[in-house]
Design brief:
Low-confidence stretches: none
Shape: globular
Bound molecules: iron/sulfur cluster
Mean pLDDT: 93
Strand content: 5-15%
Distance between the termini: 25 Å
Helix content: 25-40%
Strand order of the largest sheet: 1-4
Structural class: alpha+beta
Number of helices: 10
Length: about 220
């Protein structure tokens, strides 16, 4: 995307359509003021796969990210206005958007992985949901999805059964908490990220219901 000729933003919207930004320390005030409500955030947990602009590869995330969510099933930032080809929260956009110059990416690259906001940075001291996030991470840590992908490619049946147990523990925890807190899906995605079964579907894992809970099968190998 870098161009020698380009010197300013052409408002093409491609950067916003590729996905919302990760939040950094400077964005905490926007979250606390409700400018970036939890409903518009999604957590990418340690171990999930994401594009790393520094290595230019899809890799497991080493440190949790909280991002602005996409639109429906797409990653296009929920604040992108396609009709106006612009940002609907321009004056309150996160720091990563403010420094983005696709034709001169140095400032953006310098920000990658630095001073990232986590859920526990956002949840204030004394908020009872902090302990739920901690309990969830202890009970249902996200596995390294690159390793998972390899085991699925090897048709490793015991790895699949182990994933099945993790998937069911994950769902049982979410069901309990969603009921206890009457939690809407959008807030669940901020507090706990996406459920493991959903992440596994990207690797061709089929999910069906059985009397013992969710059952996993390998439908096809690879993404
Ligand atoms: S920064 Fe680049 S990709 Fe983003 S809207 Fe401007 S020209 Fe398009
Ligand atoms: S917050 Fe605004 S500038 Fe940033 S990705 Fe979303 S639409 Fe684009």
């Amino acid at each position: 995307m870098k161009s020698e000729q380009q010197t300013e933003c052409k408002r093409c919207g491609i950067c916003c359509q590729k996905g919302g930004p990760a939040l950094h320390g400077q964005d905490l005030a926007l979250v606390r003021r409700g400018r970036l409500p939890w409903e518009n955030l999604i957590t990418i947990r340690r171990g999930e796969l994401a594009y790393n602009p520094l290595s230019d590869k899809i890799e497991p995330v080493l440190q949790e990210l909280v991002k602005i969510r996409g639109t429906g099933q797409e990653w296009c930032c929920c604040y992108y206005d396609p009709a106006g080809k612009g940002c609907s929260i321009y004056g309150s956009r996160p720091v990563a958007c403010g420094v983005l110059k696709c034709w001169q990416p140095e400032e953006t690259l310098a920000l990658v992985g630095q001073d990232l906001l986590s859920r526990l940075d956002i949840l204030e001291e004394g908020d009872p949901r902090r302990s739920l996030v901690q309990e969830y991470e202890q009970l249902c840590p996200c596995p390294d999805l690159q390793e998972v992908e390899k085991s699925l490619a090897d048709q490793d049946e015991s790895a699949l059964r182990s994933l099945e147990m993790q998937v069911n523990t994950d769902i049982a925890f979410r069901d309990r908490v969603v009921q206890e807190l009457n939690l809407p899906l959008a807030r669940e995605l901020f507090l706990f990220g996406r459920p493991l079964f959903q992440l596994l579907q990207a690797f061709g894992v089929g999910v069906s219901e059985s009397s013992q809970g969710l059952r996993l099968t390998i439908r096809k190998v690879g993404i």
